[in-house]
Amino acid sequence: MRRVAITGFGIVSPFGRGKAAAVEALRKGASGVKRIESIDTSALNCKIGGEVPKEAHEGLHRGNDRFTRFALIAAEEAAEQARFAESGIEPERVAANIGTGLGGCETLDAGYKRMYGENQPRIPPTSIAMSMYNAATSAVATKFGAKGAAYGVVSACASSAHAIGLAYLTIKSGAADAAFAGGADAPLTLGIIRAWESMRVLSIDNEHPERACRPFSADRNGLVLAEGAAVFVLEAWENAERRGQPIVGEIVGFGATSDAGHITDPSADGAMRAMRLALRDANVSAGEVGYINAHGTATKANDVTETRAIHDVFKDVFGRTVPVSSTKSMHGHAMGASGAIEIACSLAALREGFIPPTINLDTPDPECDLDYVPHQAREAKVSLFLSNSFGFGGMNAVVAVRTLLPEL
User: Fold this and answer.
1) Catalytic annotation, pick one of 57, 162, 331, 333
2) Which of 78, 188, 303, 378 falls between 20 and 30 A from 259, CA-CA?
């Protein structure tokens, strides 16, 4: 079994385009949540979201749905850092796995508006190709000539974590030498926001959007929808060494489970088993983990359930409390892209020597009693972290990432 290196990664998020924008916001504890500008929200109760700034994507990759454009922007940054064009890896040995929870919402919403709102009988012939869930995977594979196994991974909010885990296993087993892996979603459309409003799990703090997402706080009142993408270039370790490519991280473990229970209520058991599987796959103990990027949605059910699961896994770690934070407090919940965005945020921050905070945690919930790194980033050297992603339908995925690597 081969080691799997991260040789490049890119991100586009409510913080802006690129890793530098994300690091700056995470260090400051600055929120990217604001009033939505890309659509008319007058008919909505919820008018806020983690929206990618217009200048971060305007004019780029036209002819694609918004989620695909985000995936391409993130993949370009990853490929540049990885010097992928110079890698010499055979195209047939390069995989592509991009996860999404909702696919081409922008295209679908426009089509429905056209048919049912404007009574126009004709739908653009490109609608299917633009809205399909694998559109981002296909676009990234085409852009970079990845002719290996390609999958559009769809498992609700665990989609991109599953996509990264799948790519990791593919390279580890020898079935590929490299992969583009990550996730993209763009759910800030009229129809999607209205559907989430109907579930009554959205925060509707329209007057103070930067304070709307409050994971683990007793006064939390729901999640904040967001959009964006993060893509990683994963590569067989020995291949990166051979070509002298700097390695920025390593995927060392992956755990995936199913609750096989309620379609929307999370299970502490499923989350706990996924974390344990990731640790076992990485061949590390719980005591070696220096940080956990929590799923941390700021919903009543998730935050208590996830806290309980973390207690179950780390209860034997005596004399220390593992720092846990939810970067969703700053960038919102990007659905199927959230796992990839959170791994990218964590890796970028930890490589700069700090743990990203959980902002807006003013009123601690007694049932959420972990060290959530409240309000401010914390200077720290962390060599191993976990990223938790849990989705509707009982889909659980945990990725273990090593950040401080041995000398090559």
Assistant:
1) 333
2) 188
Choosing from 242, 269, 288, the residue where a domain stops is: 242
The pair of three-digit structure tokens given for residue 336, joined into one six-digit string: 């199927």
pLDDT in tens, 368-381: 999 999 999 999 99
CA-nearest of 391, 385, 257, 270 to 333 is: 391
Is residue 333 annotated as a catalytic residue, yes or no? yes
What are the backbone angles phi and psi of residue 133, rounded to the nearest 5°? Answer: -65, -25
% of residues, the chain, pLDDT over 90: 95
Q: Is the pLDDT of residue 406 over 90?
A: no
**Within this chain, do residues 228 and 312 fall inside the same structural domain, yes or no?**
no
Amino acid at 268: A
Question: Exposed e or buried b for every residue in 313-327, given b needs 16+ CB within 10 A?
Answer: bbeeeeeeebbbbbb
Q: Is 157 in the active site?
A: yes
Q: How far is CA 74 from the centre of its chain?
A: 12
DSSP assignments along 80-127, one per residue: HHHTGGGS---GGGEEEEEE-SS--HHHHHHHHIIIIIS------TTH
Same domain, 341 and 192: no
Tell me which residue range forms the domain holding 169. Answer: 4-242
258-267 mean pLDDT: 92
Query: Six-digit token pair at 383?
Result: 């060599």
Per residue in 306-327, pLDDT tens?
999 999 999 866 446 899 999 9
**Catalytic-role residue among 46, 105, 157, 368:** 157
Query: Which residue among 295, 331, 345, 368 is the active-site one?
Result: 295
289 and 180 co-located in one domain: no
Tens-digit pLDDT profile for residues 78-119: 999 999 999 999 999 999 999 999 999 999 999 999 999 999
The total of other beta-carbon atoms located within 10 Å of residue 129's CB is 18
Buried b (16+ CB within 10 A) or exposed e, 2-41: ebbbbbbbbbbbbbbbbbebbbebbbebebbbbebeebeb
CATH number of domain containing 154 = 3.40.47.10
61 is catalytic: no
Kindly report the average pLDDT of the chain as a whole number: 95
Q: Are strands 354-355 and 378-379 parallel, antiparallel or unpaired?
A: antiparallel
Indicate if the alpha-carbon torsion angle 66, 68, 70, 72 is positive or negative: negative
